[in-house]
Amino acid sequence: MPSEQFPRVENANEMPITSLAPLSARRLLVLGGIALILIGMLFGDIFAVFVLHQNASRVGASLASAAHAALAGDTALVGASFQDVGSFLENRGTKVDTHVHAIDFGYLALLLAILLPWIAFSEATKQRLAWLFLIGASLLPVGVFLIHYVGLAYSPLPSIGWASIFADLGGLLVLIATLGLLLGLAKFFRSQVPRAVQDVLLLDRSRPGRILLAGGLIMVLVGFLHGAYYAGADLYRHEALDSSIFMDMATGAAANDARVVDRSLEAYGQLQGDKAVKIAAHAHIIEFGLLAMLLAFFQPYVSLRETWKLRWAYILIIGSVLLPVCVLMELRFGLVAGGLADFGGLLVIIALLAMWIGILRYTGQLDARTGDTRIGDTPIGDKR
Amino acid sequence: MSGGRRLLILGGIALALWGMAYGLWYAVFAEHQALNNIGSSLASAFDAAARRNPAAAETAFSNYREAKYIYDRQVDVHGHWIGLALLLIVIGIGFDRIELSQRYKVALALALFAGAVIFPLGVLLQTFNHGPIPRGIAILGSALVIVALGGITLGLLARQTSAD
User: Which chain B residue has the Cα nearest residue A297?
Assistant: First the structure.
């Protein structure tokens, strides 16, 4: 079927101003959502390069210290070593949670931005809900990040600190905002005669959009197949190994057998590495697939030349495939694969940043159009 | 809006809210306790080993194994419900780009939605019962998701090819 049969929206001139008006709910959610994803990804890359491996080494060293303390019959050192393990794991866990939640809230913001025309509330109500969503979506990752550093200082509760409280509050705000928008959606569908929604974003059939949508869907499918394979072949084996290795370690320590303890420690390190790369590859290919699919819908807002839009779409997909594939190969090829995986992540970040700048350019052009009385002199869709 | 699209978008939003509410409940009422349980049972096991008490170590490891098994699944359930919900909504938004008859599209939407609900549910049920039934529910759910995604991908690629 020739592409001319589809309504094509590739020029910013064709877009109604109201769809992305200044401080409109959609503009807030689109720009805020992509910003959240970018911040989450940058944070993830920095965490992977500067914290993840060092932290894993510290966890391993503390575990070895606990095992050797058990071997020596030193119960006090066992306790102290496990406190260190707990602290390092909390440090790691909160940073992973920060990375994941910032990105996932960004995805949710983009989704809600697409759904806005179906939400039967006034623009002012949608704006308030969008602000509430963005405040909550920023508060939660920041709160989670601070959990490790704030601890229980000045907390009114015995086991939950202020950072945790604010993180939970952020989650609640996101929940309320999403629930509010859902009510608007329900109101739309409950109206006697729902009005037909013609959103320009959904009419777009440009090539970058189609490549991102199909590429993203294939990545998600591959991710699910990999996840199913992991669950069938590795998950239960890993779980059984996890506790049996610990059991060997403790039995070796109780029998005063240093060789068994050291062998178990090595096996535990390998197991953790194997688990981490497989889960990371599964999660990342699905997340990147979803991102590509979401970005496909926003291509009409990316005010760049068509050739550049296409290049950024390809770069995003190449980076999205490179990262999980290289992560999977990290155990076999070590730092080379790790470096390539980080490069893949960087490609995704750069492509996403380029698209974000394209959308920012588009909003600037819209603002100029609304504010400029000499609109006839200034072509809005001028692709400089 | 077609039936399949409506099911995916509304079902996806409901599932996302459910997943978030579950996550919030879990973070406030269960996660800290679960992590404390995992950490303390592991520390107790090594403490028992240091005291040369293998029976106590074994009991503590058994507690660790159970606590870790439950924790991993509860976190996975939260992540998978929300992740699948987002996928449902995104696919729902682009559902009109799929080159299949309405009947097939509704069937694919139903399979995807059912899989997205019951796959994490099966995983959650494993925390109550380690037998084959919850595992079978999880496998059925994931199979539904994969088959539906495969069908949707083929439908989309057929449209893309004809568009090119």
Answer: B94
